[in-house]
Fold each of these.
Amino acid sequence: MSEDADDLGTAGAGDPAPAEVGANWAAGRRNRLLLRRALAGVLVVAAVVVLGLYVRTSRLTDDSDAFGPDLAPVMSLIAAENAAVEKEHPDDYVTVVAMFPMTGSLTDIALNRESIRHGLEGVHLAQVWRNRQPSSPPYVRVLVASDGPQDWEPTVEAVRDRTAEEHIVAVTGLGASTGATRGTVASLSASRYAMVSAVITSDELTGFPGLARVAALNSEQAQAGVVHARKVNPGLKAVVIKDLNPADSYVKTLARFYTGSLAGRERVMELSFDSSTRFSGTVLDVIAERVCNSGANTVLYAGRSEQLPALMQALSQRERCVRPGVTVITGDDASEMNRKVDLGMWGDTRIRLFYTALAHPASLALPGGGVLTAIRARFEGDDPDSFRRMFPHESLDDGMAIMHHDAMFVALETAKAFAREPDVPSPQDMANMLTSGTVTVEGASGPIRIVEGGARQTKEIPILQLNPDGTSAYSGRVTVTDGGPGRS
């Protein structure tokens, strides 16, 4: 018999019900138990509601502990800035949601934690400088969210649900060119929600209503990479190595445009591997053998940085590649390797690795470059709110802080255009402006003009040489305009 049934039918041991009051006592006992059950039910419901609200709220957050201790310092700065805005300008602020893939393996998300941290620092830099402008509102709050493979769908739902109450006008960041990113963009685009991506480069992720992009496309990076390859090796003979991972739009489009950018005699052959399988490193070792026996002087690598060290090791162990000094050229994902390491990622330094970067701090000080003095000072000046002063131990070399600053800056300058309106612009109002062909911003990566449809018109693509210890050297830049041929 259950405990409840025992409570309803009998008094406890040693506490018999008096005969004269037995019926009334039993009824009262039953009523007390039912009341207790009802109160317990209310508490359970309340607990579920509170937990649900917490989960819902934590989808979009500025809680310093939300995404781990490595991100806590920058999250704390964002929270403090948000609190100041809410206190000082309670009726004159907008909110931008910064999305990063906080969940999933590196293969799934294609961004390491250092890149995410630098991206958040760039977002906060743009937030601070917008809020320090003496001219006019809107002031800006930032909420951070995860669009990783495990949580992008509930995050998108939370964005939609909380748009009005949080004054959300746009989403920025959005991660790399992966399946989860495509899902996020497609879902938000279905309601023409304003988005400004920082590092999406796949040519397949174009044409989504509401999406503006500040990064160079893979087609443009491929052109720039081939221009540099011809400069390094005038008699270009290239092998294209492509990753066949079906879930990765970045590698697919980069491979297609590497092949398309080569003249007939420049293309020696194409070889492929699949990074989604267990032993892709073994396949890359065999591929290296084929490359070194082919007479090629250049490898155009259309894959992710996670597998690149295996290829570089394999090439540098073969004399037929080392002696002539085979050059490897790849896309911006190699910036994930741009951090100092204790052990070299590959052996012989005669095997050189170049990559097309989305941004680099050398461009900030480049003579005749397109970065305004005021924007340069925002990063390298002595102002307490400069990047150098706020984050003195951080590097700009991977370009993530620069690109996420610029994406955020585009969103904020677009919101500023609605300052004369009586109400906060909706994400649909913002999307209409973003993709109208009228948005022009002086960014840290150079002048940014978002043309009709949301693409960036002119790109200055830096070329970096990455060393085995993770340090890099600036090797020039290639200008790409409207998808046309690059020039160095």
Amino acid sequence: MHEFLVELTTTVPDGTDPAEVDRVRAAEAARAGELAADGHLVRLWRPVGELRSIGLWRADDEAALRRDVLGTLPLWPWMTATITALQSHPSDPGRADASA
């Protein structure tokens, strides 16, 4: 699997019923847990004072990430995403082969 840095910003459409927002956010949390258990969602952060999220995600390729992973998030229709494909850096202390 490949790794991706994904910045997600959610914008709830004006006039959306607050109960619907609560329902979708609860479904989002459940789905994120499933994606983490499946190895797709590795880490997730929220910058201090901001409403966007930054995550480390894994998928076979960017198309699969959009279609099969992010596209299954209940909030996805309200999200904008910036996706950056990542590759290992030779100086990354977390590399599996760093000591080789």
Amino acid sequence: MDCTENCLALAQGFAKERELLWALGEQTRQQVFLVLLEQEDQTGGLRVGEIAQRAHLSRPAVSHHLRILRQTGVVRLRKTGTKSYYSMNAETAVWDDLYDLLGRVCAVVHRAREKGAEKWT
């Protein structure tokens, strides 16, 4: 694959993952996500108040950021009666897609680095 094809493929990958990259790129959502990752029991989940306390954020802020993370598929919601529990969604293909995109980026950068090194030696 030449440089133009690589760039086109990367542009398509970025477009596909734009919402996910945007969601995970925001610092407050990263805090919320990290709190969910720290859970020992990924099946149980945490309530908004627990997340807010652990992330040192307000409940409304946590709710807002959880909504965005849920829309991208990285966080899941489980309801039990009137209670809502949130956890990291390890079952989604989102992670594989992101892994593939970042792997392609790294491969292109690595090839560019090798070609650049050849020019400087």
Amino acid sequence: MMPPDPSQPPPGRPGRKLGPIVPSAGSVHRAWLDPMRDAYFSSGRTLGDLSGEVPLAKSKLSELLRGAGLYPRWEIVSRLATLLGLPHVPLERLWKQAALEAHKSRDWVDRCTDSAALTTTHAAAPPIDHRALCEHVEQDYLLYAQAFLPDDLQCEAAVSDTFDILWLSWNDALASPNTRRFAWTVLRNTVMARTPHIDGRPCFSQTAFDTVALTYLTDDEARARQLAETMALFQVMSRLPANQLDVIALRILWRMPTERVSELLGLSPAMVRSSQRHGEHFLRSILYPPETDEGATP
């Protein structure tokens, strides 16, 4: 199980507490750091224990696990992953992306991975149940990503990263009360980390506009009016709470059945219907406020 507070070690662990991930760490860097920190906290080991087997001082190991200092070389990260029992394949993919995000050159990345040349007994393929889940949800995960991310490559990268993060955290996913909910949370966090925001609210992509019926309108004036209404709708949708936004996006933009939305989000059908009902009520209240009767007596 994941610890109650992932920024703090379990009670009784000797030594200094490991601080939180630094704000400057990029989104993909955090994607592999979070599972590594969870594995560290769950292991019961101390930084002193690990520094005896990883060629790093405790202070530098602490920096690595907080995302501080220089971006770590793959040789160190892979060695630490072996000690903590993390699979190397998804970790290496995320490590490479985060290195480029941290402005490391491709040559540096290639030299790091080539020079490591470490053999490992970790499986090169994810667990069967992980693969089954990914195959079952991949296309619909891509649809969700397309509502927020501007192109297919970014959508595919977000879903691929989601599956790699899930592989790294698969034991936690299985131990959670709801594996589907766990997986959806990983997807949502991954997509939102890549989504442009204005005033803290996610922006919808051009793909989302394409899902409405603009293509069926041939009159320029009608198209302009529909586009303005769609922009207003998306601006209000961005104010919805997470569950309501996700349900409304899947039900309105992609016309998914309630049962499929329930399956994807790991929520009961009743919760999906309730989220849709409350979300639609909020949208109507903002977009079509009730008219006031100016002649009414107070």
